[in-house]
Design goal:
The structure is a single chain. This protein has one domain: NAD(P)-binding Rossmann-like Domain (Rossmann fold, 3-Layer(aba) Sandwich), CATH 3.40.50.720. Helices cover 38% and strands 16% of the residues. The chain has 9 helices and 13 strands. A 7-stranded parallel beta sheet has the order 3-2-1-4-5-6-11, with helices on both faces. A two-stranded parallel sheet has the order 7-10. A two-stranded parallel sheet has the order 8-13. β5, α4 and β6 form a beta-alpha-beta unit. α1 crosses α6, α5 runs parallel beside α7 and α5 crosses α9. It is globular and about 55 Å long. The protein starts with a strand and ends in a 14-residue tail after the last helix. The chain binds uridine-5'-diphosphate. Uridine-5'-diphosphate binds next to α5 and β8.
Length: 329
């Protein structure tokens, strides 16, 4: 049975990959994005598809969608620490007001809703690796607090709609994910290092580089998210790759991969930058029968190919393309 699926943040990194996934499943996809951090280039290839529709809309405002909906995937949000600094209020609003609007829509349409939660709800974690039972260590008033607390509120209101209104809800705690369509200038570590290598700049490691992250390739992440959506599990679940690495080792890997002659330089560690992060994915393995399959070396090669091509495209000023015929306001 084909589904009608609303995907918010459709022009973003994960949102656009989710659009592809559901289109490939034979479903009808309604994408929605306010394009603050998203880029229409990520979904340009879908505009010709009769099973794809796009609305230029900010989900922090009332959301109306005509017709039935089977699934709602709420993936709209700035997702990079430099974005939270630039647009803190929008970050808070999309995670709180936006989620409220979409839960209301899910209730109205009798649709199942999956929300994009995050490893950031664990803050700078005191439990390692992070299990879903860990409550987290978040600085409410720090620069990242606008994202972390919006996402924590998002989980609370989602569970409230589940318990009080009986809405079918799914909560994915997404850990660092990478791959094609990340924004070259979004400040996150992979586009930052790859952009620097491509421009012939030194790689900027923040702090001494001993902080750790665990990176999941986007195809694995999308597979895990899809399995969660179609499961019957309503509680939060970690979806990420447990393969942990220090940022310094990671910079060295990128220098090798890109063949750049640049060196590593050190910059101050941003406030509240978590020192360690690694998902415990026991639940995802047991409940969803999911675990990541793509190695970092393979994923990083594919990602670098994307950034290499993008740089030459960007020189051609691809943002001059006019997509206005395809957008509903
Ligand atoms: N980082 C870095 N250099 C950069 C960008 C990021 O060393 O140019 C570090 C950052 O301090 C953090 C890690 O890389 O420890 C991952 O940062 P990112 O912004 O990708 O995501 P986060 O996991 O912190 O949300």
């Amino acid at each position: 049975m084909n589904k009608r699926v609303l995907i918010t943040g459709a022009a973003g990194f994960l949102g656009s990959h989710l659009c592809d996934k559901f289109i490939n499943e034979g479903d009808f996809v309604i994408g929605m994005d306010n394009l603050i951090t998203g880029d229409l280039k990520n979904i340009e290839h879908l505009f010709k598809n009769p099973d794809f529709d796009f609305y230029h809309h900010d989900v922090s405002k009332f959301v109306h969608v005509a017709g039935d909906l089977d699934y709602i995937l709420h993936f709209a949000s700035p997702a990079s620490p430099i974005d939270y600094l630039k647009i803190p209020i929008q970050t808070l609003k999309v995670g709180s007001l936006g989620t409220h609007n979409l839960l209301g829509l899910a209730k109205e349409k009798n649709a199942r809703i999956m929300i994009a939660s995050t490893s950031e709800i664990y803050g700078d974690p005191l439990v390692h690796p992070q299990t879903e039972e860990y409550y987290g260590n978040v600085n409410t008033i720090g620069p990242r607090g606008v994202y972390d607390e919006a996402k924590r509120f998002q989980e609370s209101i989602t569970m409230a709609y589940h318990r009080f209104h009986g809405v079918e809800t799914r909560i994915a705690r997404i850990f660092n994910t990478y791959g094609p369509r990340m924004r070259l200038n979004d400040g996150r570590v992979i586009p930052a290092f790859m952009g620097q290598a491509l421009r012939g700049e030194d790689l900027t490691v923040f702090g001494d580089g001993s902080q750790t992250r665990s990176f999941c390739y986007v195809d694995d992440e999308i597979d895990g998210l899809f399995k969660l959506l179609i499961s019957d599990y309503a509680y939060p679940i970690n979806i990420g790759n447990p393969n942990e690495i220090t940022i310094l080792q990671f910079a060295e890997e990128i220098i090798k991969l890109t063949g750049t002659n640049q060196k590593i330089i050190y910059k101050p560690l941003p406030t509240d930058d978590p020192l360690q992060r690694q998902p415990d994915i026991t639940k995802a393995k047991e409940i969803l029968n999911w675990e990541p399959k793509i190695s970092r070396s393979k994923g990083m090669k594919r990602t670098f190919e994307y950034f290499k091509n993008l740089t030459s495209e960007e020189l051609l000023k691809s943002e001059h393309k006019d997509f206005s015929n395809h957008i509903r306001k």
